[in-house]
Amino acid sequence: MSLHYAVGKICTEVAEGFKVQFSKEFIATVADLAFRQAGIFAEDLEAFAKHAKRTTVTIEDVKLLVRRSKSLHDHIEKMAANFVKGKNKKKITDEEPVIHTIDLDC
């Protein structure tokens, strides 16, 4: 699913709930902003991992990224706990869960 399509669907749901309409230009602008913000997040996550002398982004990097948004931080904490529970069912380990691997040597 493309980001623009996903933003359009979310705007449609919000519009129905609040009895408003969003123009195509508005939806395109929100999609562009979301894309740019995702790029900034990716750069920050890479920088956090690199600063810790790692080549992988971990859940701790994600928590650091969202530290200023309490609701998002709480959501990430819940997701991490569920991820660890699911991982421990398969294999017991003391390793920190890795969310996404990024090659920083590019």
From TrEMBL:
Pfam families: CENP-S. PANTHER family: CENTROMERE PROTEIN S (PTHR22980:SF0), CORTISTATIN (PTHR22980). This is Centromere protein S. The keyword Signal does not apply. One of its GO terms (cellular component) is FANCM-MHF complex. GO terms for biological process: DNA repair; replication fork processing; resolution of meiotic recombination intermediates. Keywords: DNA damage, DNA repair, DNA-binding. GO terms for molecular function: chromatin binding; DNA binding; protein heterodimerization activity. Belongs to the TAF9 family. CENP-S/MHF1 subfamily. The keyword Ribonucleoprotein does not apply. It comes from Trichonephila clavata (Joro spider).
